Fold each of these.
Amino acid sequence: MTAMTTGPAGTAGGAASATQNGTANGTANGTAKGTAKGTAMGTAQGTANGTAQAARAGRTAGGRDGGTTTLTLVRAINEGLRRSMEEDPKVLVMGEDVGKLGGVFRVTDGLQKDFGEDRVIDTPLAESGIIGTAIGLALRGYRPVCEIQFDGFVFPAADQIISQLAKMRMRSLGAVRLPVVVRIPFGGGIGAVEHHSESPEVHFTHTGGLRVVACSNPADAYHMIRQAIRCDDPVIFFEPKRRYWDKAPVDLDAEPDLPLGKGRVVRPGTDVTLLAYGPMVRTCLEAAVAAEEDGRSLEVIDLRSLSPLDIDLVAESVQRTGRCVVVHEAPVFCGYGAELAARVTERCFYHLEAPVLRVGGFATPYPPSRLEDHYLPDLDRVLDAVDRTFAY
Amino acid sequence: MNTNAPVGAEAYGAAAPPELVQLLTPEGERVEHPDYDVDLTPEQVRSLYRDLVLVRRIDMEAVALQRQGELGIWASLLGQEAAQIGSGRALSDQDMVFPTYREHGVAWCRDVDPIKLLGLFRGVSHGGWDPAEHNFHLYTIVIGAQTLHAVGYAMGIQRDGAEAAAIVYFGDGATSQGDVNESFIWAAVNNAPVVFFCQNNQWAISEPLEKQSRIPLYRRASGFGFPGIRVDGNDVFACLAVTREALRNAREGGGPTLIEAYTYRMGAHTTSDDPTRYRVASELEAWKLKDPIERVKAYLFKNELADQEFFEAVELEADELGKDLRRRCLELPDPDPLAIFENVYVDPHALLEEEREQFAAYLASFEGVA
Ligand SMILES: Cc1ncc(C[n+]2csc(CCOP(=O)(O)OP(=O)(O)O)c2C)c(N)n1
Ligand SMILES: [Mg+2]
């Protein structure tokens, strides 16, 4: 069961870091997978070189102005930031190590070189300071895009986000706009140490005044980051770090096909609706493929936006399928799935063949990485829930 | 006159000290300092040398193990051995240590089995030693958070009337955090028996010190109302002397001290990092000349305090230690999956019990399945 969770993304990350280190990542006792994926603590990923090269190759092949090119999710966000900075001189990028290093995941790679230190700011090591000063810059007409290095490090900034960023518009009776984007790589599955694998999204969806979105693939990542930057409200932008090295074609010149607040059916189906966002979208798609072999047709919805929630899309689907399973990495208890289950029940009560089931993390701190494959929902746990929903 | 003397140093009744306390030059020359001294027997110097070599060897082995996929990541202490051993050997048994994630040398001084450190970075636990058993708190990864814990602990010492102090380790980057600045304030207004030991290794991942401070870090202290001092962080004698004095002062009711150990992170930030992206190789070359171990070796040699046999014995011991550590690391079992539910609460918790049962049943459903 655990072997399945390691999947191609984990392998890709591990391979890339092995390349960078110039050493073969271990196979040692067959359990190396847990650690060989290797990233974390401040300086994540090794993929830097590989990613950058791929993107450069992509640029010359597809051309930055020439439409479609295959990008990793990291590079897609990078291109989205670049476009936004080109379009609007008020857009700033700020955070720890975002300058020369290009961020520990290389999402901001090359931006400081091209846009200068005034627009791409290596901040002092203080998350509260990052968000607090971003608010000040926004009050002065700038559009800061803040990077929080890892999910677990957003908490020192919680006061500035929850008590200031979210509430200033109401406090000013609508006079103030704070177009601040807070980018947060989130979720686990990369073999990291403590605080580098968390899913803190509900802290923010539970806070009125923040828009909260999570991208799941390169094309959405590119468009959504641009839309988030254009948005006049604060946006908490979750990036699925274990999918950072997933690749897909991205049309850099296309207009986004959806507004920021809308979800998407990423795989149509008839028997069960799977609701997911961020890293779990791919897991659900893989589950849907596996279920097909058992003759079950799973519809997968990528919510994309958690606040607001595109409940119409969800309700329409569940009314068709009659069954609903919610999947996220965050703990199930009081997780985002609880809200989804309640709303789906309210909207689809007479269509439901079974209660809405939830698959997610346990009500514990995130475990040491050698246990994370047990903690995180995987294909088997999703299919197990699908089975259970048919047992009613 | 030294322009970098602490602002307002007179306020503490002290003459402005030279900027960098050094007792042993990079060439291994013993030098005098007006305020600090150590009186070490040859045996004690050899013992310090042994500590330095052994912790460097532990670190090297851990880096190698990470490269081979046996650890998820490792934060190397390379270059910071003297800062850690010097300060670590200044501690009394009753003193309490609050480390970051890089204090493998201090952990060594507190008799924390290095396998525990490897276990954390391998991902089999989040640390797992009992802080009270070693008077060495758990590693803290969230930058700066432990500074407040140390001050609170020191306030407890104060109330107990105990003869002890707390010492807290943090980096140059950490000095920007709100928590660290708040801890300075708490320590100052409470006159808490705490020593702030900042290892300024010049870098916070890719950001050089200039991104955190416009003044030497030790001078921050004066604004908060307690003394700050900069010590050569690659000089184990000086680190020992300065930390000893600060701890003594704290234990005797003299309040907090900020020690800035001026050193250099000779390796990458962690094994995931690629420093060639942000710093020049010549910097490392310059610091290699100030290596914390070489100068002790030179001192021992010059003064005929150790012979070839001694150095060989230490090397041999280091190799054995490395080998043993490697073997034990490879033998570390993955925890039982149900360990996820352990040690979350002291008392039983209904939700957790329910989840544990469900997950156990789920795992059992795979048994016998090919
Ligand atoms: C609150 C928080 N933000 C960000 C990080 C990621 N991070 C890990 S180490 C590090 C740099 C720390 O630099 P410094 O304090 O100088 O200590 P050093 O690593 O150099 O020993 C950063 C930004 C973190 N661990 N915690
Ligand atoms: Mg540092």
Amino acid sequence: MAYAYLFKYIIIGDTGVGKSCLLLQFTDKRFQPVHDLTIGVEFGARMITIDGKQIKLQIWDTAGQEAFRSITRSYYRGAAGALLVYDITRRDTFNHLTTWLEDARQHSNSNMVIMLIGNKSDLESRREVKKEEGEAFAREHGLVFMETSAKTAANVEEAFINTAKEIYEKIQEGVFDINNEANGIKIGPQHSTGGGAGASAGAGGAAGGGCC
Amino acid sequence: MDFLKSGLKTVLGAPEPGQQPSGADTVERLVERVNNSTLLEDRRDACRALKAMSRKYRVEVGAQGMHTLQQCLELDRADNETINYCLDTLNNIMSPTQFEEEEENPNVPMNIGEQFTEMFIKNHQNIQLVLDLLDEYDFRVRFSAVQLLTSLLTNRTKDIQEIILVKPMGVSKMMDLLADTREVIRNETLLLLIKLTKGNANIQKIVAFENAFDRLFEIVSSEGYSDGGIIVEDCLLLMLNLLKNNSSNINFFKEGSFIQKMLPMFNTPDEEEVGWSPQKVSNVHCMLQIVRTLVSPSNSAQIISSCQKIMKNCGLLDSLCNILMASGVPADILTETINAVGEGVRGEAAAQRALGAVLAPSNPPRPAIVVLLMSMVNEKQPFSLRCAVLYCFQCYLYHNETSQASLVQTLLPSSTDVSSLTSGQLLCGGLFSSDVLSNWFSSVALMHALIDNNAQKEQLLRVLLATNIGSSPVSLLHQCTVLLQQSTKLQSKVALLMLLSQWMSNCPPAVSAFLRAPGAVGYLVTQTCSNEHDENEYLLQGMSAFLLAICIHFNDDSVDNYSKDSLKQLLVKRIGMETFSAKLSEVSRHEAYSRAAKHPQLKVKAASDILIDYEFCKLFKGLESVLIQSLTVVQTNGDTEEDTESLAQYKSLIRQQDARLHELLQQLAAETQRGHKLQAALTDATSENSRLKDENTLLKAQLSTAASIQPAPSVDANIQLEYQQKVSALTDEVNRLSAVNHAANEELARTKKDQDDLLELLADQDSKLNEYKMRLLSLGQPVEEDLPTEAEQSLA
Ligand SMILES: Nc1nc2c(ncn2[C@@H]2O[C@H](COP(=O)(O)OP(=O)(O)O)[C@@H](O)[C@H]2O)c(=O)[nH]1
Ligand SMILES: [Mg+2]
């Protein structure tokens, strides 16, 4: 249970592009063809390993509808990473990326890592957005890009883990202020003794260490 | 808001010379000063005075000053003192509580604070203004802003929640205040957040996302956990709000290892002298509520099970069990701990095993379960405690064949140790006790050992009881039928019927045993046929019918006189199919049934309300239609002819149901349309209502001010009205003219200024022109008239 770092993610993008399915595939390793419409925001979590270090990912899956946009905005500020998802079989979801990106950039901290994801890559026959277009958009806006399938699980691990790697590198470079929790990063209990995270994390370590 | 002021003015008129100015007059003059004074000090003084008056004259200050105060928040933002007065005044006007100063005043409506709140929030920008003020570090401003938001939320929870939710960073701003090093602000923020998060899942999630649980546990631990003051309780109440019915947050709580952080909360004090202060009781009670929220049976099975596992593995369950067995624990804490332990183990085998292994520190040591059951069948224990024990025991047996078996085992003859008291003995004792509640609790507890467990149903048939010394022992089931026939108490009869229904369903040997018991069938038939009119009698009739149907459906024809067919014929002849179905349907109509069906835990206030158990409802719901069907199927042996006949029957039934479905769909569509219409009408009515309320507040304000004015000397009302109209018309005219005048004056001034500017420019140009001329002349160039124009062209 002990982790070196904790990162907070949000998943954003139009409704129906597969955000909830991506999260479920990542946390539970399963695909649910009929998924409930997300109302507001739903939480999921998983532990990963990067560079031999345990990293806990806390992920908030948001509802894509316009009605929930203002609620979603409350989550940008405290997130270290964002998965911006579109559906490769629906061009309109690709066209809306600019709006999503503007919204995210306006409300998040400037260091937030954004991963662009073209989902449903298993539906090649119904593809409406070329992979090159996704790559071009990502290059133009300085994002990392990947095509995934929540159904076959292709690239799903990679999408979440590469985002974490990017954040981890930024930490190593000293770009992120890791002592400011508002950035969506927390240092794990075992790390806190030397660092400045203070007594709270230390106390958590004592409690967590005894029981798990 | 302007109409309020002008409305007041017409009522007030000019103050009479030489008279003590009324409160309303003073308020009016103060408001005017805030509006018109150009000196900040002046406005500040006026705001201070308004604040001072806002308790006693809240209607006047609210009606006349609200708009001005709002403006002040915007315009005087830079002056913390003024802002502070403004906020406090607004807070007084909209305060949800009545002030001492206004207790005597009949003109102040009860919900005046709410009415003013409604007016204040009509403009969402006002909330934004207050939210923005939270960014101000100044103590007074921040403190007052927090208090004002708390009042607003108290008055109009849902509305304000929705407004704040769509304000960018609205919730986050409040969360930031929890980190304020000034404790007063932090504590006030806690109260604000409790109000803010009440019943709104979206806000709860944002607050959790903003690290609320971390902050709250920091505070709780720094305040000394359960020994801390009311701040600890506030923190826990907020946590409770965040978790209640919010699976996303529960998941987050679990994943964030916060369950482990609750552990120190339940440390039982080593020395007993430390005792339980009322605050500690409240703190621990809240914490137990949090535990129960995490493992509440209404959560998803996945969440419950993973929380239970963590609780067991981190030692939280042990800590709770320690409280269970500690001495000097207050009764309500004990009760709630028993409930929490129950839900902490419900359906989770490892945790149930752990609970089964807990030993009470008695001499000789007894299993904790046995000690608990002793309380359950003890008349002297508080009712709520006894209910809690039953619930805990049910949870201990829930979905656990091993604990069910071990209970039944204690009753079987092979059970060796006769000397020690066992669970089974306690329950049998309770079953036959003269205390009706003990009967009920014991029957239901025993019934839970049989749920979905056919092996134990058969095992329990082996249980023999020694009734009288010398006479031969009778079986437990037999004894239950005897009790059922003898008992005169409703609760005992219902309890036994529930136990027998559970026991005999899906268990033909138990049915046979019942059918062999003397008088048993006759009793059920008589009960079912009974004609008494009383909802409790209906229930008994229905439950008897239910048991009778079980006797038929699960009958293996092993008892001669009561084969399946003969019982059916008996039923048709003596009762009639229609009556029978009608009686059966009475069960689920009883109020106690619908109450019990909602939740596994009994929710009754008084001992006399106790009647039906949750698991019985489940049994009944599952079997009712099956039983009716098996009775209506034609009685003789099914040959092909019968089959086609029943096929035809089914077909016609389906057709009927189809038609009915169609009909219902149409009804639904009609109802939906009606609903839409009503909704529209409601919206209209609501807005009309809100307009009328505003008007009403205005009128009240007018009334209260009017009351303080001397009645005018006997002038004929008509004349007065005429004069008033004239005056108002004239005033309008004057206003219009002075506005025209003002505009004209302004225009004039502007023109004059333009003229001056032009003249100045002209003079300037003139002198430059002369200068150039001179230079040209000095250079020996001829001077032409159009020189400046050329210069301009070359510039272009
Ligand atoms: N074929 C395919 N279908 C997907 C994939 N991801 C999601 N879906 C389907 O797309 C629909 C919307 O998915 P959902 O996760 O609810 O979208 P959200 O609104 O973005 O959360 C569902 O019917 C999913 O079954 C994918 O990778 N491949
Ligand atoms: Mg979704």
Amino acid sequence: MILPTERLGVGLGYRPELAADLDRYPGEVDFLEFTGDHCFSPSLMAQAQAWSRRIPGVCHFLSLSIGTAEPLDPEYTEKVGEVLRQLGGPWFSDHLAVTRVQGVDLGHLSPVAFTEETVEIVSRKAIYLQERFGMPFLLENITSHFTLPGASLTEWDLLTKIVERSGCGILLDVNNVYVNASNAGFDPYDFLRGIPLDRVLQIHLGGAVMRDGVMIDSHGHPVPEPVFDLLEFVCDNSPVSAILLERDRNMPAFEELAGDMRRARSILDGARTAESAPAKALPA
Amino acid sequence: MSLLIYQAALARTYLDANLRTAVRAGDQSALAEFDLSPDEFRNIQQLICDRAQEIDLFATTLQRKRVERLSLAYKLLRGHLGPNRWKLLCDRYCAQVTVQAFMTPEQDCARFGAFAKENLDPPAEHADRFEDLLIFEGTKAEVDAVLLPQWSGNAPSDPLPAEARPYLAPHARLRVLRYLPQVLADWANGALPRPVPESAPVHLIFFRRANGADVKVMQIGRWLAALLDRADGRATLPELVEQIASLSRQRMTLQDVWKSMTALASTGIIAFSRPQGEPS
Ligand SMILES: [Fe+2]
């Protein structure tokens, strides 16, 4: 599927508590990411519809469980379609993960095996989703504190193969790359060099914190400096259209969020103005 | 072993600390439902032994997410118990009630209400307040957990036929409290709640308008509550009015009841069974 090229800019995940600040600071938020699962509630759907008339929006889902070795849940997929019909958007996304299996809902993202079988399972579903909804589908990389045994691929090879086979795009969570690299001891730039950056349309930018010797994607702390460096690298080497600042705990004053957003915007703008210049050298 | 069976067995081990302990100890019967060969069992056992710390950390994350949902559904209860007692109650619940197949997060919240009712031992001076609190938040969770994909009830015709037999919709619940919900909420902010007079308890209807919609709570009068309590899809409206006549000094006219019933039917709280029929 041909990926859209229009620029969305820098945005935030929509939550009702944000409404007052969105009103007070018009122009600070270029786009909103709606958690599709929340929009299954008619009242949140009504809010999302109202906001999407004022600020461009994209839909992000949590529970397609695309990595499960069984068909997509028809009821859930139908609801996804309903949200997309009502809110539209240039693409929609979910995670490269297992959240449900044989009716058991984990309520959270669990890792997939890094194998050819997973490539096959996920690609088939990504193709189906893009065809069914006529919209590009982006896969997001997750954090995981362990890898399942029997891996024949690296995480970035797995993502690359799925993208190449299915034609889907990537929602690159640079914070998740940073967290996994810190915990598993690989170089985050190996990940970035290993994936087709030309398929990265959206970025998730978030905070991380070290707890008991383990790096956690907290969604509740400021963005670490190395994560901004990863962002800059990706923006310089890919057609990124949208950067989402993920923050859903320890919400700071809006001004603080706006500061991180402005910094991300300047990185995105810098990459754009340097578009004709040769791509930056990859860090060694 | 198929990938699906492997994923299903792993999901169970992520969610159940006792199961993880059993598998680590080599108890093959712990995963008996998955029909694993000894080699397949060892494969899973090895993962959760070799990566014990990481898997337990992940399991903690799953439980934290589960408790976050409970905290949202039982805000008042959590406020009253305080962080330590709330955590103890949640830990006990998560250890005793593991997430099962086809158990939705809403059903989990509803189940927690029943668990809390059985396992809470509130101080005697607050026992009736805690009871009302659990009825209030537990019923909200219960109504939220009702699956409503198709149910639309019978739209009443206008005018209602005299033989129309009302019944409470499957996603509506009628409850009686001694404390007004607002008073219970203020209790969390330090106000000492006063019950309503025993002769005039608080009658509430909990309902949802559509699948996914928030649960609404509506206070209703005594006679309407009595009428809905008896509305089982078998008695006609005139019969119901007759049954509750003694409750009101001023005899309710059929027309009043008609009006209320039509209003309730339009919000989906009640439906009407077909004349002479059973509830549809
Ligand atoms: Fe993310």
